[in-house]
Amino acid sequence: xxxxxxxxxxxxxxxxxxxxxxxxxxxxxxxxxxxxxxxxxxxxxxxxxxxxxxxxxxxxxxxxxxxxxxxxxxxxxxxxxxxxxxxxxxxxxxxxxxxxxxxxxxxxxxxxxxxxxxxxxxxxxxxxxxxxxxxx
Length: 136
Fold this sequence. Notes:
The protein has helices at 7-17, 23-42, 88-113, and strands at 46-49, 53-60, 63-66, 73-76, 79-86. By secondary structure, the chain is of the alpha+beta class. The protein has three helices and five strands. Helix 1 packs across helix 2 (23-42).
């Protein structure tokens, strides 16, 4: 599973990268950016961020559903939702990173199956006699 970042952590990370900005300023800019994104979504707009992806509002049709507690059939009303499509650049980057991680895990598993320690394994050695050789 991925890493979850809170609003405070995101502000901290950005403020660290841009020492000329105070955390309060970063918080205000991010707040305004997300507010503008939300307003555009309400108005049915679309936001494209090259190298990252595109947000847009979509309409979900009404559909039949079931109440999970009672099992009774219900109608789920039509609604609007936010759709996000990842850019090709980001998708390629994510696939490459995932492939590297997968290859590393496979190498680690192969090492373990050969009886050799894998990367990150700790080997504990118990020593019974602490007297140096030949000093008895």
